[in-house]
Amino acid sequence: MADQDSGDVYVLPFALAFDTRERLDGFLTALQWVVDRHDIYRTAIVWEGLREPVQVVARHVDLPVTEIVLDEEGPEPVDQLLQAAGSWMDLRCAPLLRMTVAAEAGADGRWLALLRLHHIMQDHTALDVLLGELRAFLTGTRRRCRSRCRSVSS
């Protein structure tokens, strides 16, 4: 398994921008809702002291959100988010998705976010489900999503 000093090609970063903190908070609430709905997002992989790795699913996990302050004199804001978040993710700690957020200096309330997902629990099909459910939550159509998405993600 990867060590913390090396990069992890299986950690997929997605940079996002929100025009207000309220919209960012709405997105974080929606993402927590998706984490609560799907056991794969509450999964950790443990192997220490075991004959083989096992998948452990927690009943509940809080979405880890780290807020940083951007350096106006530093690199590009997204590069600062990437640097702060790192490129490694501990498979033993659920959930295997993380958020790093920051207010963008001089951007009239705009916020940037970096969503990192580990490929061990997120492929293209699962990403489509994740995005569809986020959209359903944010547009107020999550009732339809409950019945439609259950068969896709179960």
Overview of the structural elements:
The protein is an alpha+beta fold and 154 residues long. The protein has one domain: 2-Layer Sandwich (Chloramphenicol Acetyltransferase). The chain contains four helices and six strands; from the N terminus they run βαβββαββαα. The strands form two sheets. It has a four-stranded mixed sheet. Strand 4, helix 2 and strand 5 form a beta-alpha-beta unit. The chain starts with 10 loop residues before the first strand and ends with a helix. Residues 7-137 form the Condensation domain. This is Condensation domain-containing protein. Pfam families: Condensation. It comes from Streptomyces cinnamoneus (Streptoverticillium cinnamoneum).
Summarize the amount of helix as a percent range.
25-40%
Low-pLDDT runs: 150-154
N-end to C-end Cα span: 28 Å
So what's the CATH class? Alpha Beta
Taking all residues together, what is the mean pLDDT? Answer: 86
Radius of gyration, whole Å: 16 Å
Number of domains: 1
Number of helices, counting only DSSP H or I runs of 4 residues or more: 4
Instruction: Return the CATH architecture.
Output: 2-Layer Sandwich
Let me know the largest β-sheet: 4 strands, mixed
Domain Condensation: 7-137
GO molecular function: catalytic activity
Protein name: Condensation domain-containing protein
